[in-house]
């Protein structure tokens, strides 16, 4: 029942009032004047704001007042907060909106059902194009309430943690919101992780309840998710029940602990009393990889996270009432949490849940979807943009993209060539491209070209400007703040913000050591950044992705950006490896565009010349290995850890490869690496 299309009668309600309210400027006597109340209603009561830059300055210098005003305006409270913030970064103590009580599901559903119940909340873009399902706010609330009542009836209590292992779909969103409604935390695990990885996360979260589907469908293939859960829970004795929804009609083996979720939901009432939650109660855990190899369960809490997700969604993307927001990230990642679910729904928006892949059934999938669903903001990953660039412009030009207003990039720094293709071909040169920098730890976007003046410049490949309330700083190797521009350093944030993770589940000491101790009094992001002479920020890559060649520090992203500018190159990945003389050398993997006919030795010479000219001779790759594809996770991230192990010839240390989109790519790379090394040895032996 829960999977059936709900018809086309429900259309998006466009509020002309909201459109008027959110116009950023008005004309007075022929001059453009900044109207703070029109641009940001949350800041209407703040005096003395003459333009956006003074609003930005106020949000940083008077952060407590700024965030308090935003929280009062943007969120619906059961009881008001008495203290806007109580934070000490040096001790890892982060508390926002203390004394306040609210329910996140009420903020995402009930308040919109009161005003526009038939507005579309979710458009589920299923794997097969043209089979999308629309779910209204009223329907999503009913689904959430039934599931919340079912969880309560089956013993899930306030403070418990429920693990969700599902593909993007309405029931996955309802599962997240049902947990929020009854006061349970959720732990969404990407439905491409192996049974072993899932089990590790279930155990660490102490989940006694797991929610899944019988099978997933992605890229025309059926994925046996229930079987993966069965294998995982065999090593999780704390799991007492597994709720199973039916994504396909194929029956699966059910055990005594399994529950037919949809059948049981039909027995429940459509009204579910929302739990009264403190601002700092846990909303969810989300596991991210750590340098030690053990995943970190980052903890996000109720009010601060929701406020930050909502505000960044509204202002970074210039989201307006009636827009269709198309974030193609999986709900298993923080991008899916913040910009497929919580941000858009808190804002009463219409959000797309994308189940498929960028190239199924062909490389025009994204743009066919944009045309069919009339998407206004599109938010995707650079790796997908580079993949589609490889297939050529014709797949984009085939479809009408005139509804697009903003293009977003997320997950890693976007190289210049991909940025320019995205802007010129996909956006027809008229849509701003917002290259967003943020992390699971930050909860939402921290640095992005927008919001800014409508005619403010956007530099390709740069995240550029901090969001309201965010104060980035660069630190040198001595731990001192770098105050000048045109400089590089470790990227830190100098004051707390509401969306930041509060701790690592069951290991606050690790949180302090990872984020608070490296630069006491600052939040250490783990990333390096460059600040241009204009004061714009460019992310240079993880500091563990910085190669030190003969004492020169160079970010892998910088080299990749140059290599990817070559017209024959689709994408690349650089890593550092141990070098007898230079300390570290540069090893570069290169994927060529389709139908490129070029000698590899000639192309290697050309790429080295480009790197030498664009950066410096010391940055030139020592090895260039041409490969058909790079090892990636199913979310599209390049697994540089795997590439390092191959180059270091530590094949026993490759670890679990089941999370890769195509594990066969690794064997191909291993073989190519052996051949390249063999050629080098032969050359060295020649007189």
Automatic annotation (TrEMBL):
It is an enzyme of class 6 (ligase). GO terms for molecular function: acetate-CoA ligase activity; AMP binding; ATP binding; propionate-CoA ligase activity. Signal peptide: none annotated. Pfam families: ACAS_N, AMP-binding, AMP-binding_C. Residues 55-108 form the Acetyl-coenzyme A synthetase N-terminal domain. One of its GO terms (cellular component) is mitochondrion. Residues 110-497 form the AMP-dependent synthetase/ligase domain. PANTHER family: ACETYL-COENZYME A SYNTHETASE. This is Acetyl-coenzyme A synthetase. It comes from Sparus aurata (Gilthead sea bream). The lineage of its organism: Eukaryota, Metazoa, Chordata, Craniata, Vertebrata. The gene is acss1.
């Amino acid at each position: 029942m829960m999977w059936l299309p709900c018809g086309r009668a429900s259309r998006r309600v466009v509020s002309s009032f909201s459109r008027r309210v959110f116009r950023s400027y008005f004309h007075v006597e022929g001059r453009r004047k900044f109207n703070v109340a029109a641009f940001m209603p949350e800041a209407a009561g703040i005096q003395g704001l003459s333009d956006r830059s003074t609003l930005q300055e106020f949000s940083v210098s008077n952060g407590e007042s700024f965030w308090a005003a935003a929280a009062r305006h943007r969120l619906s409270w059961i009881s008001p907060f008495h203290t806007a913030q109580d934070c000490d970064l040096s001790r890892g103590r982060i508390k926002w909106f203390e004394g306040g009580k609210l329910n996140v599901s009420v903020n995402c559903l009930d308040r919109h059902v009161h005003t526009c119940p038939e507005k579309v909340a979710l458009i589920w873009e299923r794997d097969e194009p043209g089979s999308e399902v629309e779910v209204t706010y009223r329907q999503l609330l009913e689904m959430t309430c039934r599931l919340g009542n079912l969880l309560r009836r089956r013993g899930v209590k306030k403070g418990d943690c429920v693990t969700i292992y599902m593909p993007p779909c309405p029931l996955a969103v309802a599962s997240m919101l049902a947990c929020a409604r009854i006061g349970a935390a959720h732990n969404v695990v990407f439905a491409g992780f192996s049974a072993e990885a899932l089990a590790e996360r279930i155990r660490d979260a102490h989940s006694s309840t797991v929610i899944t589907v019988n099978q997933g469908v992605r890229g025309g293939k059926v994925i046996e998710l229930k079987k993966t859960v069965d294998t995982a829970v065999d090593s999780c004795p704390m799991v007492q029940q597994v709720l199973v929804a039916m994504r396909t009609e194929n029956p699966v083996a059910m055990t005594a602990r399994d529950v037919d979720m949809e059948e049981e939901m039909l027995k429940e009432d459509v009204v579910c009393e929302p739990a009264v939650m403190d601002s700092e109660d846990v909303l969810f855990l989300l596991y991210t990889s750590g340098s030690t190899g053990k995943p970190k369960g980052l903890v996000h809490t109720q009010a601060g996270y929701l406020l930050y997700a909502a505000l960044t969604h509204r202002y970074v993307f210039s989201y307006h009432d009636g827009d269709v927001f198309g974030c193609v990230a999986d709900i298993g990642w923080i991008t899916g949490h913040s910009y497929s679910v919580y941000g858009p729904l808190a804002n009463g928006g219409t959000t797309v849940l994308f189940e498929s892949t960028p190239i199924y059934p062909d490389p025009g999938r994204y743009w066919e979807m944009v045309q069919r669903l009339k998407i206004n903001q599109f938010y995707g990953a650079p790796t997908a943009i580079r993949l589609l660039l490889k297939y050529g412009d014709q797949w984009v030009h085939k479809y009408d993209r005139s509804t697009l207003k903003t293009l977003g990039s997320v997950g890693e720094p976007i190289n210049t060539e991909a940025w320019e293709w995205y802007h010129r071909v996909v956006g027809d040169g008229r849509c701003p491209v917002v290259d967003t920098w943020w992390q699971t730890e930050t909860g939402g976007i921290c640095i992005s070209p927008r919001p800014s003046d409508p005619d403010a410049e956007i530099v390709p490949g740069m995240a550029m400007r901090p969001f309201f309330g965010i104060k980035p700083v660069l630190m040198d190797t001595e731990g001192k703040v770098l105050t000048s521009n045109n400089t590089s350093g470790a990227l830190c944030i100098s004051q707390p913000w509401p969306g930041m993770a509060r701790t690592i589940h069951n290991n606050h000491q690790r949180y302090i050591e990872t984020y608070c101790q490296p630069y006491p009094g600052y939040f250490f992001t783990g990333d390096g950044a460059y600040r241009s002479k204009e004061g714009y920020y460019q992310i240079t890559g993880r500091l563990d992705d910085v190669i030190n060649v003969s004492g020169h520090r160079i970010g892998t992203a910088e080299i990749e950006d140059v290599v990817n500018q070559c017209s024959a190159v689709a994408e690349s990945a650089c890593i550092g490896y141990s070098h007898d003389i230079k300390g570290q050398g540069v090893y570069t993997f290169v994927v060529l565009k389709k139908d490129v006919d070029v000698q590899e030795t000639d192309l290697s010479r050309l790429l080295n010349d480009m790197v030498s000219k664009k950066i410096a001779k010391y940055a030139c790759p020592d090895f260039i290995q041409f490969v058909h594809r790079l090892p990636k996770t199913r979310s599209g991230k390049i697994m540089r850890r795997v590439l390092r192990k191959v180059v270091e010839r530590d094949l026993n240390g490759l670890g679990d490869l089941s999370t890769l989109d195509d594990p066969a790519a690794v064997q191909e790379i291993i073989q190519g690496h052996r051949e390249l090394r063999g050629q080098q040895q032969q050359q060295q032996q020649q007189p």
